Amino acid sequence: MMGIRRLLSQWNTKTFGGSNKLSVDDYHVIQDPVHIQEGNLDALQLTNAVGQATNTQSQSGPMPGTGITYYKAQTSTGSRGALFNPDEGEVWQVGPVSFQLVNNTGAVSVQAWIEADDNTATNRRVLWADASTSSTSYATLHENLSPVFVDANTTVKVEFTGTSDSVNFYLYAIRVR
Fold this sequence. Notes:
Layout: H1 4-11, H2 24-31, H3 41-53, E1 68-74, E2 81-84, E3 91-102, E4 108-117, E5 123-133, E6 139-141, E7 148-151, E8 154-161, E9 166-175
Antiparallel strand pairs: 1-9, 2-8, 3-6, 3-7, 3-9, 4-5, 4-8
């Protein structure tokens, strides 16, 4: 059983701010041994209060300091490659996908897909955005800019068809849980 003293002793070098601020990773490591049982109710309440006070646990909205851009150089035409798949227990809001063609000849079509299992445990995909261009300038797939949330059961995949050495894909994501 995880008592409050033991839980607090793991946090005794951390603060709510400054250079020793409790990070999201610290918070997850420390909350792991707290089992959901009646004897741990005080520890569960303390873990929740500290998570909210340090903003390492989101009740709604993004978790500060978790925004990141994911990158993938997709080199095979006509095949979908995984750009982003969160770890178990995480939920991320993903933003637009940007891309840049590398040594293309002519127009190249690019797509971003959201893949997840459906209610029959069959992997399904939804076309999130697509474009066709021959420009080597950065471009953004922006058809569906409404909030999109992904978890461990969901993968953002990218694909291109046409003649290009590769397509560099970029995805902005920020963790919300």
